[in-house]
Amino acid sequence: xxxxxxxxxxxxxxxxxxxxxxxxxxxxxxxxxxxxxxxxxxxxxxxxxxxxxxxxxxxxxxxxxxxxxxxxxxxxxxxxxxxxxxxxxxxxxxxxxxxxxxxxxxxxxxxxxxxxxxxxxxxxxxxxxxxxxxxxxxxxxxxxxxxxxxxxxxxxxxxxxxxxxxxxxxxxxxxxxxxxxxxxxxxxxxxxxxxxxxxxxxxxxxxxxxxxxxxxxxxxxxxxxxxxxxxxxxxxxxxxxxxxxxxxxxxxxxxxxxxxxxxxxxxxxxxxxxxxxxxxxxxxxxxxxxxxxxxxxxxxxxxxxxxxxxxxxxxxxxxxxxxxxxxxxxxxxxxxxxxxxxxxxxxxxxxxxxxxxxxxxxxxxxxxxxxxxxxxxxxxxxxxxxxxxxxxxxxxxxxxxxxxxxxxxxxxxxxxxxxxxxxxxxxxxxxxxxxxxxxxxxxxxxxxxxxx
Length: 452
Prior knowledge:
- By secondary structure, the chain is an alpha+beta fold.
- The protein has 13 helices and ten strands.
- The radius of gyration is 33 Å and the shape is flat.
């Protein structure tokens, strides 16, 4: 039965490995539990570490072989070290599997020392702005490569991001994707067990039914990038919900956390990054979320914005601007303020009209609201995007009317219904009229009989 005793030798291909003991629990192997299985740390005779991921029965599938073949083409990309792996299978590892059947389709791969992003957030550990920008830039670079190849991790979360060299200088830090077995590629079959439920990285429109496609990472990836960028703020660390910044129940809802995060991104990295978060937060489907290519371009501008802002703050020769004057490096027109109560009500009314299909009225409400914000501010951009979507809906209604055949069918149905209703009404009138006439005739006969 696996795991065996710590002294047991495991012969994996041409190497001999032993399980590494847990640093805190004597006599137990060092293993990390996950949704799909447990990752054990191994060491060979040369002192080199590696990892063995043993899957639970529901996740032991032959498709792991095909997945590994696909991964081999991109295993040298930054952030994809765990893609360099060997799958234990009956054709090549029968002796070991005969001894430990639980290892069927297990993955032997590099062991990566690091700290998950969820651990960073739970520790409330503030990161320097340089490291924040480095982490976000490394992550977006990896995700953009996958996106351009039509591949998605499909289960992105803070627990599946491993920060390597977290205590080193920013140049030495990297971000590795782990738990990649459920990834999407057009050559692969959809897994039977897709992640479901509410998390701090799941939009409401994906809670009941998960998504497995080339755009699956857009929403979660955007939230992770925003978290990383803002984690140099003590306020952000203080008000984070738990192992994610957002409470799962407040996703895409007006909240203090969202306002704080957007304001922090605006202040530290400029309006482009903040606008991407606004667009992400208001998306109703993955196609409306920013691509990682867009994030990559915005981060390039954010780096320049942060450097210029830092120069203004820390350069002793730079004169501080007077309160009434606008600064060159941090324009006041880009300041992010929370919506007033009246503005929140107006926005909610516009969205409700849009959901009800009353697009013209919704467009009018959005138009009145957008006039209250300066151009290029996040709220102005967010409302502008909403107005564009409503306008598209209006255009479709005008230029793609209901087919004539459908209208004719509806007209015939209404006419038939009215005809049936009129026939019934006339029948009752005849019956009632005949009954009254018969009673009158009988009464007249009766009266005549009395006078005879």
